[in-house]
Amino acid sequence: MASEQLEEYLESILDIEEKDGIAKTSAIAKCMRVAPASVTEALQTLADKGFVHYEPYRGAYLTEQGREMARKVKRRHRLLEVFLSDVLHINGENVHEEACKMEHTLSDETECALCKMLNAPARCPHGSLIEACDRDVESCSSCLLENTPPSICTRDEPLIPVTALQPGQKATIAFIRGDSSVVQRLTDLGLTLKTDIRLVRKAPLLGPVEIAVRRTRLAIDHAIADHIFVTAYGEKAG
Amino acid sequence: MIGYRDGDGCRPVSGMPDDRKEYVAALAGNANVGKSATFNQLTGIDQDIGNWPGKTVERAEGLLQHRGLRIRVIDLPGIYSITALSTEEQVSREFIAHDHPDVVVNVLDASALERNLFFTLQLSELESPMILAINQMDLAAQKRIHIDIRKLSWLLGVPVIPTVAIRGKGIAELSDAIVSAIQNRPKPHIIPYGKEVEDRIQRTMELLPAGAGGYPPRWTAIKLLEGDPDTVWEAKKQTPGAVAAAQVYARELEKIHGEPAGTVLSGERYHAAERMVAEVMEIQTPGDQEITLTERIDRLALHPVLGYLLLILTIGGLLVWTFVIGAGMSEFITKFLAGIAPIQPLVKGSASAVLFNGAWTGVVAALTLILPYVIPFYLFLALIEDSGFLTRFSVMLDRGMHKMGLHGKAIIPLVLGFGCTVPACLSCRIIESPKQKFLAAFLVTLVPCSARTIVILGVVAAFVNIWWALALYLFDFILIVILGRIAFRVLPGESVGMIMEMPDYHIPHLSGVLGQTWQRTKSLIWIVLPAYIIGSIVITAAYAVGLLEPINTLLSPITVLLLGLPLMTGVVFVFGIIRKEMTILALAALFGTTVFSTIMTPAQLIVFALVTMLYVPCISTIMALAHEFGWRRALSITALETALAVGIGAVAIRFLGLFL
User: What is the pLDDT of residue B155?
Assistant: First the structure.
């Protein structure tokens, strides 16, 4: 199977998994607009390569390796969407299609350059959150201020935005995205790197998230909180 | 030198203080640490509330007389940092550096020592004489937090006083400490940063001349490394070499740490604060395991369904409660004052009688607004504010406010607006970005204040029916949302998201609630009373000398042709500029009846109330807007809203005529 097709499958499975928990063959077929029989075949291949756990008649879910790959492609897809709509002003309806085609050929270097040029955007034009990159950096200024991107040395643990934590979950701040004024504002309130935090709750309708940090609690606008990336305790342990 | 002979043995070191001179103490600290309570305890009710020159930041000052010294206490704005990102931060740091207060009193929250000490460390870099007041010691004790005050004092090198400001505990000791700090001038220790940072601070300092720009050289060096725009701009004029060197050092730090130098320094300050807290603080049981009372209440107050229900009940209750009490009290006060002198606008008679009548109606207007409606409203609001509920409402409404380009904190001015527009405009200061501040003030002028509610109730609910009155209310809310969305797009500037501390709930303290209510009422009286009295005199006088007759004719194209209202309403609307519900009094006086259904059709009554609701904000509001945003913007709002009122009124009279 072509790597392009493989990546498309991984993306679809990630989407469906986030919604339903497990990706059923029929759901994947519907999402990819292919026959269920081809899906079964593809899932078998993906399972052989170690990207998914496949259980016939139940469906598939991503392995750690598969999830990492899917997130990487998703990140590229959304970065490209920002580029296509904000820089090239491509018609909104075509942005998704175009990005779908381009995302598979993007190199690490181009991805990094794109992110830098777009000033490390937080969300795609459709409002979905863009994943943090997998470079071992603590804030965007290492990229934005330097002429050469930081060496490609990937992180040991997956980063998730603080808004993706479950209420009550504890985590450590690993990376704050955005320009220095955002970083400074958060830092001054005690949200420094390597600080332990706990997500107290999320307000309904993408409202502010409440974070416990340094024995105080802060309500932070959802869009600002999207800039804070953490490693969750749960993932580290298990 | 008299008056300091009976001192407690703490003999002055740097000369006896001069008891004729006035000393200055500045209170600095985070928001929500009880800084205002400390300020109130130190100064009593004799306070001056004003603005910092040229800034829409509140400046409160009062006098402390202790041990024969006169000490002016300045309450600096509550801030979390002095990186000068906001106006509040700028005001605070300029005051400490340029006005050289004799002592800076840093107020801290005992339960959140780490974050508060971060600010203390920044403050200490300004190298002013300093003392610490660790406040809310009782709440910390409830959380089983123990703080070693003596050790903290030893670590920082300045006196530390534990207080419970709201109960007045430790205030006498704090006053003593302020007096002895004025004599001893205790300077905080310099807390060194990590080696690579400290090295670069030292090297930058060596390039700086002593006393440049009024700031200590170490502070300047740190700010240059952080790339603080103001400091860089100032220093460039005198020592461009140091600025360039600092830039190089900052880049080196960025390379080492992978984050901007400013963030590196903040991070290091937090590490220093962490270390200090580890040495001085002990917690008996980890607080994480217990479910606190705050957590229990939050489960209700921030619940996706119950939370909104609570919000609607509280705000609805606030309005109903105010108007039930208000209507009763207002009637009583009006009757009482009418017994002293007539309160209807006097349009004929001797000059002195007319002028007296003008002044008197102004006083009556102010009293019947403030006493019955505004004070109960403020009391209730202070209760939900002080207890901690208002912060939760901000969180729940944040998303909705985004639709109008605002954020959750704007709920405070918008709710205040139901009482009176004037303090609501002033309270827009709590919003950080200038664009959102102005946007909020604009929308606040459209919120139906108690005066407008009286008109809607007195004209529409009484003579058409209650449903039309409610429809007017609803229409107003929709209009606010629509105009908010438009203004958000049209106005230049940046919208900033909300980051807000969530304080623990507590039972409101009587003194805090009363103090807050009094402060708000006082600022209202100062603007409203003179405007009412002078405005009433001018308009009644103009009317008496026959100046207002031509006004009716002049306004007739608008009132009669466009709005389809009786000719006399022209003057009525002019009266309404002083205060909106003066329109009812004027209507009654000019037509000689209080049964308004005999002089206007239902459609006319609705349009009359609608226009009154929307047109020119009252004189006091215009003054408040001019005070905060300048005359140009105040008059733009006035013109815009008047045009809007006439436009909507003209459409409404034709539309309503079809089925009323």
Answer: 93
